[in-house]
Specification:
Shape: flat
Structural class: mainly alpha
Helix content: 55-70%
Strand order of the largest sheet: 1-2
Radius of gyration: 17 Å
Length: 86
């Protein structure tokens, strides 16, 4: 949750010019320069891939009632839960 909040704060702090500005990333797997928003989109897409992996692994070990991993559903239920708690 802390990492999610930190990422949201970071993305919300970006201006239109800074989010479209080229950003260089160098890792053991690639060395690339792309607009910052493309890396943000990649992070979101990559996390979706891993949520799917977790569900698949769970089903392979017999878990059939996995929790919803859709971000919009998560937000909706989180808001309802916290609004009802107030």
């Amino acid at each position: 949750m802390d990492n999610s909040k930190e990422l949201a704060l970071y993305v919300n702090s970006l201006t239109e010019s800074s989010i479209t500005k080229d950003c260089h990333v160098e890792t053991p797997w690639f060395n690339e320069t792309r607009p910052r928003f493309e890396y943000i989109l990649h992070v979101m897409n990559h996390s979706t891939y891993h949520r799917g992996q977790i569900i698949t692994i769970g089903r392979n070990v017999g878990l059939t009632d996995a929790p919803m991993t859709d971000f919009n559903i998560y937000n909706f239920f989180w808001k309802v839960r916290h609004m009802n708690a107030s």
